[in-house]
Design goal:
Length: 129
């Protein structure tokens, strides 16, 4: 199924935000990608861009070598879904993360996520990725 031009723009926006905000944990780049009235549903971070910036600064200070390895992306209408693997440091099994973003007027307006620890040993031979 082909993506619409708007879906392509939404996907490019979210991928650019990953490249310039989440992967480098660059709080100073947040305003280029997120709406001023950004709605956050993550239960570890308050809503709005300023709490997100504070969270990114804290995470960058605690985990300067973190890796965000994107595995797959989906887009439908104004929503973009990204499935990825976060590792805080070398040797860390990390987290399996699914982020859901809603795009409005060319900026990310809303975010939900689901985070799951990746166990070092699992009875299930299938990777979460």
């Amino acid at each position: 199924m082909a993506r619409t031009e708007q879906e392509e723009r939404n996907l490019k926006l979210v991928m650019a935000m990953f490249d310039h905000v989440l992967k480098p944990m660059d709080a100073d780049a947040v305003d280029r990608y997120l709406a001023p009235d950004y709605i956050q549903h993550n239960q570890w971070v308050d809503t709005g861009t300023e709490p997100l910036k504070a969270f990114l600064r804290q995470m960058r200070g605690e985990n300067p070598d973190a890796v965000h390895d994107i595995k797959r992306c989906f887009v439908e209408d104004d929503h973009v879904i990204v499935h990825y693997h976060v590792r805080r440091r070398p040797g860390d099994p990390g987290f399996a993360v699914i982020d859901i973003f809603r795009v409005e007027n060319g900026l990310i307006a809303e975010h939900w996520d689901v985070v799951q620890d990746v166990p070092a040993d699992s009875p299930n031979p299938n990777s979460p990725f």
